[in-house]
Amino acid sequence: xxxxxxxxxxxxxATWYFTFAAIIFGAQLLFGLVxxxxxxxxxxxxxxxxFSVARMIHINALVVWMVxxxxxxxxxxxxxxxxxxTVGIGLxxxxxxxxxxxxxxxxxVYLLVQVGPADETSLWLIHEGREYIEAPRWADIGxxxxxxxxxxxxxxxxxxGNRSGIVTVLMADMLAFAGIYLAGMGYTDNISVDQFWxxxxxxxxxxxxxEVFVGSLAAYGLITMIGAHRKVVEMWLWIEVAMLFGSGILxxxxxxxxxxxxxxxxxxxxxxxxxxxxxxxxMFIHVLYDWGKMQGEExxxxxxxxxxxxxPAFTWFVLNAIGNFLGAGVWGxxxxxxxxxxxTHGTQFTSAHGHLAFFGAYATLLIGMFYLAVQGKNxxxxxxxxxxxxxATSMIFGGVLGMTAALTLSGYVEVLVSRAQMGxxxxxxxxxxxxxxxxxxxxxxxxxxxxxxxxxFVLVADLLSIGKATHxxx
Amino acid sequence: MAKKSVWSDNRFWQRSAAWxxxxxxxxxxxxxxxxxxxxxxxxxxxxQNGVTKRVPGPTVINYKIxxxxxxxxxxxxxxxxxxxxxxxxxxxxxxxxxxxLHLGKLGSQVKNCMNCxxxxxxxxxxxxxxxxxxxxxxxxxxxxxxxMTGKSSKEEAMxxxxxxxxxxxxHARMMPNLGITAAEAKGLVAFLKHLSSIDTNxxxxxxxxxxxxxxxx
Amino acid sequence: xxxxxxxxxxxxxxxxxxxFIASTLVLVFGGFYVGIxxxxxxxxxxxxxxxxxxxxxILTAYCLYLMGSYMHVNDFTAKALVVAAxxxxxxxxxxxxxxxxxxxxxxx
Lengths: 474, 217, 108
What we know:
The structure holds 3 protein chains of 3 kinds.
Chain A: H1 9-40, H2 51-82, H3 89-112, H4 120-125, H5 137-160, H6 165-181, H7 191-226, H8 230-251, H9 264-275, H10 277-300, H11 311-333, H12 338-344, H13 348-377, H14 387-421, H15 426-434, H16 436-465
Chain B: H1 10-38, H2 44-48, E1 63-70, E2 75-83, H3 94-110, E3 118-119, E4 122-123, H4 144-149, H5 154-163, H6 182-196
Antiparallel strand pairs in B: 1-2, 3-4
Helix pairs in contact in B: 3-6, 5-6
Chain C: H1 16-41, H2 50-71, H3 75-107
């Protein structure tokens, strides 16, 4: 690195995490494309890389790149928030290599071994076959060790330096994030009990702790990018934490409608998941409010310049507010009531929601963090967009929106044909899959997926080159 | 400086966030303590005495299972009926049945069923939902799947299909060969039969309404 | 005892589409209501836009009503939906009030 403006080791480590995250992000999209192609051409890579394998890598890579980018984001903001170099940075670097190596081994085993005999050894060495957290048990234990090391660094730094509101929230949130993972490590013959605990991990991650993480990161972004007042931002953050955990923790009920659990989860799930969009609206308003206030203050001084110090990153942060509201909010809300979910559960509707929610709520913000890191690394005061960043943003956001729309169409066909009329039998399932509308939806999903994938390459090219552009204010 | 209001005090909101989170977590833990005992596996004695469990014991494989409308609850529930042969026997002991279920559940994870199929509606959407697969008319005596494998019972047809899935293409989208052995297949079928006996609060709705499976015919 | 069963009857095949649209619009209109309200308050939009924000709230409430009727909700849920509509009405007022207080205290 000829011109590295980063003065702290913590930020340098963050860029390692971001780089590895971006590579895994690419792998996620690649295997997503394989699976999407198999919907359109069922014989594609049959018994070589089957749908089950492609999808497992697709969703595992998703979780892994996000966790990497989240850890990277914390290492990035710690020196700014606490005012000191991160404690235990050597440990952090060691754990990075351990984690990255483990991930590579896990993915190679998924790809080359794929399945084993039905015994415990396979669970320990190959995979556990429970979506999103398929990682074999040896890797489970490894992940816990690595994350504990990371949390030690976070706590030690937070306690030694200035513990801001944002750091306080992150300390509590990351501990919960790691602790919850333990709920998904066991094995039981009872599938109802199995799925009960499995949802503790998945739900309490993506609809509670990860959302709070996003709130903290958005707060940090607003302070660094548009100079929002810390007191205001941190008060928002606390309100958001209250709203997110207040609705999200018991929103768990909407996963307990049909897995064998008692009927009272209908009422609990309906009530709390109906509240879940409220914090997402609040987060959206938060960005709008701060932006309006700061721009207004600037205008009052008679200066008609933008207050935004990093345009591409801020664009992604705004897309995060919109995408979170659309993907997690709107696409979650319309099938969250048990009366409706009875027909939509386990159809492509869930898939549509999953795509837009993971992307809108998490991917957008983490891509924004990539841009913040590029800015910091190149010592840029005000970073402007390039043609490439506009193209990348439009292609990726447009591509995911298109995939979501296509999957929603296919899901609607499934609801009508195989659920409302045919009652979810095999015959009903295949009738819906053979419907012209369903197949068109799958074609469009693949096309939109290709656009997203191409957008990813433009994004990478932009991240690698934007720092050298000359139209920034240095 | 304007008068300090409680609403603009960060410490107030910090405490509120802590209390709300704590309260929601405690409620979730309390509900967990209520739910878990209700979804533990039942026993063989429960089945013999006609005690209804949300998740029956493994020996449910000795019985006939149907899916019937419950007027009071307003949706279908699985009903456990008289004895029924399963691979030629209806006298599996608690240990034998538990062993089969163990093998089947383990197999369902190791063979990665969930990344194509849905189980209890969770998983991938590339292949049919398996929640009530055991009750599916396609596998019944008049169903296309049983006829295709040339077997005379549902469980044998399912086991045969699981061992050689690509020999029986039902759709352009085929199930790949996962190296499932005869013993594993038997376990998987036991797992599927047990799965169909779980009380899922009426999911899936109107299962097989058109083909007449709702009332177990 | 119709009121006690949560699912009183099947959703009609023809009513799935209006149901999905109505429940989507609940949040879309709700978002517009809160968004326009905030934008006017922080002066990103002029004051004449304010009546539109309330118009969107009325549309939100109407879509909630539609959603409830297509789902054939029971009496209790219907009451909860009314409370939800009022909650949405109050939400941005309460949040803006609090934000402004904290802003003033920090600047003046």
